[in-house]
Amino acid sequence: MIFDLIKNRRSVFPAQYNDKPIAKADIEKILEAANWAPTHKKTEPWRFRVLQGESQEKLGLFLSLKYLENEPNPKEFKAKKLIENPKRAGAIIAICMQRDPVQSIPEWEEVAATAMAVQNMWLCCTEMGIGSYWSSPGLVKHMNDFFEMNDGEACLGFFYMGYSDEEIPEGVRTPIEDKVVWMD
């Protein structure tokens, strides 16, 4: 049931991943789920770059170096984490958004559509037993130095994926009644 799947979706972080590889066919299925997200005026703004193997290591090194270059008071543990996390993942998907060239809709709607595509990926991963996590470090603004991006394209973060042997805790939410006002 989709409601149970939604309730069971969790952030599973790279430190929790094991070494089990993710099959290309599974990544393609996850990306196909993303492609069916709602999109106003059918702009389909989501764009993805899949990183596996050596490209993950290169990403970690790139992020760490950018952090050290741009942070006035860099912390060694953070620079190390930026190097290590990409290597722990079974795959990383760079989440990008391509702005409609004629700007037929507000930019926030295209960001929202891309976020819905990521939610579709997240739910698909949950169903497939793959842990996942959307990381959106400030360093994404430098991604055009790592891979070629089109005019009007922006990187919104990284979707880390990996299998985990850890027990994933149940989610907790405050009651919906605290967040809803019924209008007559």
Description:
The protein contains five helices and four strands. Helix content is 38%, strand content 16%. The chain has 184 residues and is of the alpha+beta class. Strands 1-2-4-3 form a four-stranded antiparallel sheet. The protein has helices spanning 2-8, 24-34, 54-70, 76-88, 107-128, and strands at 46-51, 91-98, 131-135, 153-162. The protein is globular and about 55 Å long.
Mean model confidence by pLDDT: 96
Largest sheet: 4 strands, antiparallel
Structural class based on helices, strands and sheet pairing: alpha+beta
Q: Radius of gyration over alpha carbons?
A: 18 Å
Helix content: 25-40%
Placed side by side, the strands forming the largest sheet appear as: 1-2-4-3
Order of helices and strands: HHEHHEHEE
InterPro entries: NAD(P)H_nitroreductase, Nitroreductase, Nitroreductase-like, YdjA-like
Domain Nitroreductase: 6-163
Family: Belongs to the nitroreductase family.
EC number: 1.-.-.-
